[in-house]
Amino acid sequence: MKKFVSLTYLFGVVFILASALYFFASNWQMFSRLEKVALASSLILLFYGAAYLLDRVLKGAHFLSNWLMLSGVISFGLSVALLGQLYNSHADSYLLFLIWAIPAFLFSLYTRYSGFYVLTHILIHLAIYFYLFPSSPFAHWTLAHTWNAFGVGIINTFLFLIIKKGFIHSKPLLYLSLISANLLLIVTAFDNEYSFFFTLFYVFILGVGVYRYFHRETSIFIILSIFGTGFIIIKMFELMAQYVSSLFFVGLLLTAFLLLAGSVFLVNYLRKYSSPLHWTKTIFVASVTTIASVFIIASVFGLLSLLMVDVSMVTLFVFATVFLVIPSTLTSWPSPVKYSLMMTGIIIGMIASVFDEFSFVMFFVLAYVFYVKKQYAARFVFYVLFQLNTAIFLGQTMDLGAHALLVVMVLLNVAVYFALNKKHVIQYGAFLIGFFAFFSLTAIDLSSTLHIIYTALFFLTATGCVYFFKKQDRTFYWVSSLVFWFMLIVQLYYDLAWKLVHKSLLLAVLGVLFLMTAVYMDRKVGSDQQSQSMLAGKRLGILLIICLQAGWIGYQVHSNETLLQNGETIQLELQPVDPRSLLQGDYVELNYTISQLEDTSIDDNGPITILLRENQQGLHEYTGVYKFNGQWNAPYEKKPGDVLLNGKVTSSWDNNAQVTYGIEHFFIPEGTGLDVEGKVKAALVKVSDKGDGILERLLD
């Protein structure tokens, strides 16, 4: 029972945090701005205060006070998002994550707690991302963005090496920096004038990493192998799109053969090492098999399409089965060659069977291969392909909709799971596929009743599996169940079947129940946790960091309230749309008549100040006068009634400039976007004497 204590505490804390996020994002209107700020501040004090209190009361459960301190920083981020919501600042602005990252970074330096390292890493990368792309994902990707990604990738590489040297102790940060470095360096290798250089650089870094870690650390080697495999395949498709020709596909086929030949020598080299390298060899063979299979399949279909060869799907299926699949199972060829030809034949056969709708034949092929091949990894892959073919077959023969098909997949995998012995490799596949199909049932479009039933059943099942498998020490199963559990919490945020505020109240109740249960269990059996408290000997410094957070919130509230009370009121024309922010809930995105400035000589991005004057309709409009990079475009002397508004030029073309003013988002209660969209004509904006604007309300 002691194993359940920390897990129950974790669920309780996560539910309380998720409840707060949902509650703030629902943009409730029954409270005033200051009341909302007070609630958010109380949440921060609740977590920090509970951390200090429990650190003294529960001497054997310092892990809980550490979690609560981390939750306090997370709740600070929610409060920062709430301030943006209350004063209608940009949704998901990089400033939100940058400000949030500051206390997380200070805590990580001061406490050396792994959770703060990870949170800081995530927040800094989010801040960089939203700084580069403030409006839409990867919009207007330029060479400057590529160099930024390259620089951040190099920093992550050095961070990984620093952790490996032992200067920072955090396994999660080690893997996070490794994954981030690979993702960013891969991004630089595509679609730019220096892609050849970036490609060579990434291949060099990847090669050094694979050579260094393939016989030392299996987990790092697996990560590098996955990224290397994906990179090679994506690069192949990029080159194929650029150089489509029969010669290219012949070269691709030759490359696959050379890759297989080289892999045979490397596999023989790996055999010189002892048995601990079994998984290293398996991952290597899997990577080579994936790359070679994709290359061969692309070559076959590419040549057939270019040469206009009229081959029936049945003929293609017979060729793949007789000349690829069967020989690969009956010969003693080296494993990379054998599995590459086998996978190539199976994939070609599945594609052919889908086009001509005879997928039932593939069951016999897969059953034959499954019977012949005894290796665990191979059987796992073939079971996944069997499930895929089952879904295709059911869709072709019974014309099942998504709902019925997912139900069948859940029941089928549940039956397979219970029919097999404990720790059987197919049981792993049945567990993952069944759970994923079950999770999909909570996300597809169904009636409200079915949706609630599936969501409740999934929650109960995932929670039960976490506890059950934790008790049995079956790490794969309880960790997988916990991942699906968290996926449900995230999915519920975007679920439109019921209101965020209702989900918030439910999660709050669940959080309290789990915490009460954890306290009861803790008192009954005691906690044998040996974690070290981050508060030990550091309370004063931590208190100073908390005071910095409180000071920033107080400053922001005071400055914004002062602007709202003393700023000059102007009206601007607009046109809204209706999205949802990651942390701040629903909002309407506003496009003003002053968002595009015509007849300018601006050819760069940067800060701008425009002159507004009131017209006969009571609306403030652009006068054609602006200051860009400290220079006015025309002589200007301020007159009574003039309003100067600060903005930022985000793009320019043909003497036109796109400008944002920090007042482009107006947060609204959940689900009321259609009531606002198209019905408002103007926005009421408060502008300070320094030119900063705050969006106060919308006007019909």
UniProtKB/TrEMBL annotation:
<keyword id="KW-1133">Transmembrane helix</keyword>
<protein>
    <submittedName>
        <fullName>DUF2157 domain-containing protein</fullName>
    </submittedName>
</protein>
<feature type="transmembrane region" description="Helical">
    <location>
        <begin position="450"/>
        <end position="469"/>
    </location>
</feature>
<feature type="transmembrane region" description="Helical">
    <location>
        <begin position="196"/>
        <end position="214"/>
    </location>
</feature>
<feature type="transmembrane region" description="Helical">
    <location>
        <begin position="7"/>
        <end position="25"/>
    </location>
</feature>
<feature type="transmembrane region" description="Helical">
    <location>
        <begin position="138"/>
        <end position="161"/>
    </location>
</feature>
<feature type="transmembrane region" description="Helical">
    <location>
        <begin position="425"/>
        <end position="444"/>
    </location>
</feature>
<feature type="transmembrane region" description="Helical">
    <location>
        <begin position="247"/>
        <end position="270"/>
    </location>
</feature>
<feature type="transmembrane region" description="Helical">
    <location>
        <begin position="345"/>
        <end position="371"/>
    </location>
</feature>
<feature type="transmembrane region" description="Helical">
    <location>
        <begin position="476"/>
        <end position="494"/>
    </location>
</feature>
<keyword id="KW-0812">Transmembrane</keyword>
<keyword id="KW-0472">Membrane</keyword>
<feature type="transmembrane region" description="Helical">
    <location>
        <begin position="67"/>
        <end position="87"/>
    </location>
</feature>
<feature type="transmembrane region" description="Helical">
    <location>
        <begin position="93"/>
        <end position="110"/>
    </location>
</feature>
<feature type="transmembrane region" description="Helical">
    <location>
        <begin position="37"/>
        <end position="55"/>
    </location>
</feature>
<dbReference type="InterPro" id="IPR025833">
    <property type="entry name" value="GDYXXLXY"/>
</dbReference>
<feature type="transmembrane region" description="Helical">
    <location>
        <begin position="313"/>
        <end position="333"/>
    </location>
</feature>
<dbReference type="Pfam" id="PF09925">
    <property type="entry name" value="DUF2157"/>
</dbReference>
<feature type="transmembrane region" description="Helical">
    <location>
        <begin position="282"/>
        <end position="307"/>
    </location>
</feature>
<feature type="transmembrane region" description="Helical">
    <location>
        <begin position="173"/>
        <end position="190"/>
    </location>
</feature>
<feature type="transmembrane region" description="Helical">
    <location>
        <begin position="391"/>
        <end position="418"/>
    </location>
</feature>
<dbReference type="Pfam" id="PF14345">
    <property type="entry name" value="GDYXXLXY"/>
</dbReference>
<feature type="transmembrane region" description="Helical">
    <location>
        <begin position="540"/>
        <end position="557"/>
    </location>
</feature>
<feature type="transmembrane region" description="Helical">
    <location>
        <begin position="115"/>
        <end position="132"/>
    </location>
</feature>
<feature type="transmembrane region" description="Helical">
    <location>
        <begin position="221"/>
        <end position="241"/>
    </location>
</feature>
<dbReference type="InterPro" id="IPR018677">
    <property type="entry name" value="DUF2157"/>
</dbReference>
<feature type="domain" description="DUF2157">
    <location>
        <begin position="4"/>
        <end position="113"/>
    </location>
</feature>
<feature type="transmembrane region" description="Helical">
    <location>
        <begin position="500"/>
        <end position="520"/>
    </location>
</feature>
